[in-house]
Design brief:
460 residues, Aspartate Aminotransferase, domain 1, Aspartate Aminotransferase, domain 2, seven-stranded mixed beta sheet, globular, binds 4'-deoxy-4'-aminopyridoxal-5'-phosphate, transferase, PyrdxlP-dep_Trfase_small, aminotransferase, transaminase activity
Length: 460
């Protein structure tokens, strides 16, 4: 296909002049370089721009449009709710029907030891809620000195002040004065980047756990409030953990009274082939952060799912101290909640968790068959419908391409062939996280386009 894009009309000019975009090179955008697309429509796993170009979206926008584009059931639910009641707040016990129904649906799907869900707007604010409630929990229990939070390098937890501090990608910290003091980062479970090439995966896991334990001892276990991690790291490179990783981390945290926040903004609601990554990888979190798949991004909504043991302390605390002074105007927004109810219904009705469990392994199999032998392919990995291919100059010698331009070049070459995949920010990594309705034929198209793009950029 040929992609043609208008760049010189009013809309493009106004975009450059007035609109400060997230995660975009400001000067280049203003000059019209790096102009993105003006997207106008979509159906299934395909998005359409205003010039009529169609792209197969193998990243579900930002791994969020899980049910795919153009679902009229969700649009109708949003329209009906907007007509009936666009908004009323949920402070002071006020409520709305879609939020009540959605809370029930979320808790029916959450791991059994979880108790209640608090609704916010975006993954970032849900993570901030979780940290604040973790601090509140420790204060109520008489341990106010537990303030520090451990996350991991390569983790992504948002762009707020606290969530951005927990994020472990240097680009989100430098020249922003982050992380805040007390936000610590331990090592990422990225076996390919192990400190010593001769380490087995089991030895690497031992090393990770020793380093975590050493950090906790050095800081003082009694000063640490929580550990936050994605069951499968997303933005840091789509990194399924080594076998047994979460059981070992959980044991360390339990021994030191440290709460676990499972950030399931990406992994929640089916992406790993299970409803939650916590189920699949055996985590026993005190908080689960949800967003993206909760509404498939048809409207903004996030949530903090809270465990029974934390809720017990919060309930007792409120008997003594009164109102939980935390909330956003738009918490449990009725229009977003209606989108959530329609989304989770659709996930069930279309069997999308099962589809992720079946089509995901097919994607890995096709990637390995077509690109596994390429001289620059260091690793092909994934779980459910999350996959990545990582490139190195010389994998056997553990020599990386420097600088990290190969990933962006490959994703650009794919886009020119009509398929969207994401160059992940930390490494020459192409990530795949398509809508959960992705078909085998769409996998075949994606892998064929990737292969052509790799050949163009790196040779055959
Ligand atoms: N946590 C994870 C794991 C994420 O991937 C993201 C967003 N990509 C966030 C939190 C932040 O969510 P939001 O952008 O909705 O604030």
């Amino acid at each position: 296909m040929t992609v043609t894009t208008r760049i010189n009309d009013d809309l493009a000019a106004w975009d450059a002049e007035h609109f400060l975009h997230p995660t975009t090179h400001i000067a280049n955008h203003q000059k019209g370089i790096m102009a993105g697309r003006i997207v106008t429509g979509g159906e299934g796993s395909t998005v359409i721009d205003r010039d009529g170009n169609r792209f197969l979206d193998a990243f579900a926008a930002l791994y969020c449009v899980n049910v795919g584009y153009g679902r009229t059931e969700i649009a109708d639910a949003i329209a009906k709710q907007a007509r009936d009641l666009a908004f009323f707040h949920t402070f002071g016990g006020n409520s709305n029907e879609p939020a009540i129904r959605l809370a029930k649906m979320v808790m029916e799907r959450a791991p059994a030891h979880m108790s209640k869900v608090f609704f916010g707007l975006a993954g970032s604010d849900a993570n901030e809620t979780n940290v604040k409630l973790a601090w509140h929990y420790h204060i109520l229990r008489g341990e106010p000195q537990r303030r520090k939070v451990i996350s991991r390098w390569r983790g992504y937890h948002g762009s707020g002040i606290v969530s951005g501090s927990m994020t472990g990608l240097a680009g989100y910290h430098t020249r922003m004065g982050l992380p805040l003091p007390g936000f610590l980062h331990t090592d990422a479970p990225h076996y390919l980047r192990r400190p010593d090439a001769s380490m087995s995966e089991a030895q690497f896991l031992d090393w990770l756990i020793e380093r975590l334990e050493a950090m906790i001892q050095a800081e003082g276990p009694e000063t640490i409030a929580a550990f936050v991690g994605e069951p499968v790291m997303g933005t840091g490179g789509i990194l399924p953990p080594p076998e047994g990783y979460w059981a070992r981390v959980q044991e360390v945290l339990d021994r030191h009274g440290i709460l676990l926040i499972a950030d399931e903004v990406v992994t929640g609601f089916g992406r790993t082939g299970a409803m939650f990554g916590s189920d699949k990888f055996g985590l026993r979190p005190d908080f689960i952060t949800i967003a993206k798949g909760l509404t498939s991004a048809y409207a903004p909504l996030s949530g903090s799912i809270i465990s029974q043991r934390v809720m017990d302390v919060l309930v007792a605390g409120s008997e003594e101290h009164g109102v939980l002074a935390h909330g956003f105007t738009y918490s449990a927004h009725p229009v977003s909640a209606a989108a959530g109810v329609a989304t989770l219904d659709l996930v069930d009705r279309l069997g999308l968790v099962q589809n992720a469990a079946e089509v995901g392994p097919y994607l890995i199999e096709r990637l390995r068959a077509e690109l596994g032998q390429h001289a620059n392919v260091a690793e092909i990995r994934g779980v459910g419908l999350m996959a990545a291919i990582e490139f190195m100059e010389d994998p056997a010698a553990m020599r990386w391409f420097e600088p990290m331009t190969v990933g962006p070049k490959i994703s650009a070459a794919m886009l020119a062939r009509g398929v969207m995949a994401r160059a992940m920010p930390e490494g020459n990594i192409i990530g795949f996280a398509p809508p959960l309705c992705f078909t085998r034929a769409e996998v075949d198209q994606t892998v064929a386009v990737l292969k052509a793009a790799v050949t163009e950029v790196l040779g055959g």
